């Protein structure tokens, strides 16, 4: 009986703390996305040809961990089949955070665009039975800095 109570307390704590952390992270993401909405991040392989640009590689890397409650819900979902929504929000947060970090790096360099944007994803720190413990997402692209501004980035 004691083990069941400990299990339920840990699950409740995992749920409450995980929900609070996720809401706080989404709030931060939404604020930063609004601030950086003026900087396009394009998946196209071809840069705009209307101006001369200096180029530089920019990256944004994020590692997000799974809480115990989501891991438990995902294990139940694996028994029944279907969408594992508890992991979808994890990947969504990691992708958006990586994109924001990449854009912030580009903005600090004075870039106007980021093109040829790509993502790489990996699961790391696997626990027992290869259950997902953390997810790493790397966003990378080429920042374009306009040469005509006299910023010292002329080609």
Automatic annotation (TrEMBL):
<dbReference type="InterPro" id="IPR035439">
    <property type="entry name" value="UPF0145_dom_sf"/>
</dbReference>
<dbReference type="Pfam" id="PF01906">
    <property type="entry name" value="YbjQ_1"/>
</dbReference>
<comment type="similarity">
    <text>Belongs to the UPF0145 family.</text>
</comment>
<protein>
    <submittedName>
        <fullName>YbjQ family protein</fullName>
    </submittedName>
</protein>
<dbReference type="InterPro" id="IPR002765">
    <property type="entry name" value="UPF0145_YbjQ-like"/>
</dbReference>
